[in-house]
Design brief:
This protein is of the alpha+beta class. It is built from 23 helices and ten strands. The strands form four sheets. The chain has a four-stranded mixed β-sheet. The protein has a two-stranded antiparallel ribbon with strand order 1-2. Strands 3-6 form a two-stranded antiparallel sheet. α2 packs across α6, α3 runs antiparallel to α4 and α8 runs parallel beside α11.
Length: 474
């Protein structure tokens, strides 16, 4: 092997040597934690049936047993850290309300934050350690995703091949988060990553045709990351060329197509963490610019009853996720399935409301299959738009053309969806989303206390936070 440092060795050195976060990076990490907790609490509140994925996962891992060290959100259970991370990671992603990094198009925080909280509780980590582990874990997850984006292909190679970059890259990022909290040195962090590369998995067919398995992907990534770091701590080693090697990560998943500069350049100076977009709506992120357009046209006075036909222009690569198969998208099987449908989410934007424009109640059992909504979805045609395709996936853009029954045409274009770096959510909007989500499970006083504890201003904040998150009070 060459004497030059390998990819995981360089990433591990970055993780081990970054001891102090810049104030803006630490602040961003706090907001990521807050967003994940709000999503998770809302996810627990929505789990009304024993068949819900988080409930099913909880039954599975409770039967595994083990030393109870870490809390489960919305439950009195304490479980081994890997088991708690599995449940909490499932909760973080269960509503499809979690953040997205662009242009890698993966959801980093839903794997990293549950990992950090589970291991931090196990080892009684300090506030600085928690924030550092979150920021670095997300950064490495995002950079692994960035490496898969090939401009000539116009997309992430993971997605071209049907892999879920979120869970595959998230497992490696989560192993770094856990390794930092376990106090491992650079060599063992590299081992943790090398082990985790054998554990990441996930395919995205559920986005197209349904199934609940995708909702456990972030939980499984968190679980795998904790296991990988625990194994590295006990002496299991990983291949030093696990990423770039002949039979390594990039060849196995991406046929050797990857961008090493995107992975490694500017580590510690250029933070991909800051390019992670919040979701204002609890739907697949590809649907967001269309929702933005529909809300704007609705605000101009156009009502659902006025609509004759609708054409939505989006980036060509996203049509297979949110526009095909057409029959599945205009007649989704459930509210969750409808979150991955451009026609359905557009109809929801015209007929629903709440939150920042489209909210969780729009996909509830009592709302999602209303005849008026399905009838409007059937009027939507999804096509490729050249402008949106050109900038994808650096930004999610769309153009919506609505023809009304009086013969008029109304058009609105969005160059970047709300919540992205080009159209960021304000601090007030971030807090509005958190407060709405958390209050579905906690009382107003408890919601305020969660916000306070996430500032991690004292050593006692984490135990108090996890206790607060374990009991329903709303």
């Amino acid at each position: 092997m060459s004497s030059e440092k390998t990819h995981v060795q360089l990433l591990a050195e970055f993780a081990a040597n970054t001891k102090v976060l810049a104030p803006n990076i630490a602040a961003d990490a706090r907001e990521r934690i807050l967003d994940v907790l709000g999503n998770s609490l809302a996810g627990r509140a929505e789990s009304l049936h024993e068949s819900e994925p988080d409930r099913a996962v909880e039954r599975v891992v409770a039967a595994w047993g083990g030393t109870p060290t870490s809390s489960v959100i919305g439950s009195q259970l304490k479980l081994p850290s890997a088991s708690a991370a599995l449940i909490n990671g499932t909760l973080a992603h269960i509503l499809d309300f979690d953040d997205t990094h662009l242009p890698s198009v993966l959801h980093p925080s839903a794997s990293i934050v549950p990992t950090a909280l589970a291991v931090a509780e196990e080892v009684n980590a300090s506030p600085d350690q928690i924030l550092r582990s979150v920021a670095i874990g997300i950064e490495i997850t995002n950079r692994l995703g960035m490496a898969s984006y090939i401009p000539s292909a116009g997309n992430s190679i993971f997605f071209e091949k049907g892999f879920h970059a979120t869970s595959i890259c998230g497992t490696i990022g989560a192993s770094v988060t856990a390794a930092i909290l376990y106090g491992l040195d650079a060599a063992k962090i590299a081992d943790a990553m090398g082990i985790a590369a054998s554990m990441g998995a996930g395919i995205i067919e559920a986005n197209r045709t349904g199934g609940t398995v995708k909702r456990i992907h972030c939980g499984w990534a968190a679980h795998g990351g904790v296991v990988a770091a625990s194994m590295a701590r006990e002496g299991i080693t990983g291949p030093p060329t696990v990423l770039e090697g002949r039979f390594g990560f990039f060849n196995a998943y991406l046929d050797g197509q990857y961008d090493a500069d995107a992975l490694l350049d500017g580590l510690g100076d250029r933070w991909e963490l800051l390019k992670t977009a919040y979701k204002p709506y609890p739907t697949n992120h590809f649907t967001h610019p269309g929702i933005d357009c529909a809300l704007a046209i609705r605000a101009a006075g156009i009502k659902a009853a006025d609509v004759e036909s609708v054409e939505l222009g989006v980036a060509a690569p996203v049509i297979r996720t949110i526009g095909e198969p057409r029959e599945e998208k205009i007649h989704p099987k459930s509210g969750y399935h409808g979150k991955f449908s451009a026609p359905y989410t557009l109809a929801t934007a015209f007929l629903g409301g709440g939150g920042l424009g489209v909210y969780l109640d729009d996909f509830s059992e009592s709302s999602w299959d209303q005849p008026e909504r399905l009838a409007l979805a059937a009027k939507v045609n999804v096509v490729a738009d050249d402008q949106a395709t050109k900038i994808f996936p650096n930004a999610f853009a769309a153009v919506l053309t609505v023809k009304t029954k009086d013969g008029q045409t109304h058009t609105h274009r969005v160059a970047a969806s709300l919540g992205s770096k080009e159209a960021p959510l304000t601090r007030d909007q971030i807090m509005q989303k958190f407060n709405l989500n958390a209050s579905r499970y906690l009382s107003a006083d408890a919601v305020e206390q969660v916000s306070k504890y996430v500032n991690f201003e004292s050593e006692g904040d984490l135990p108090a936070l996890m206790k607060l998150l374990s009991t329903k009070s709303a």
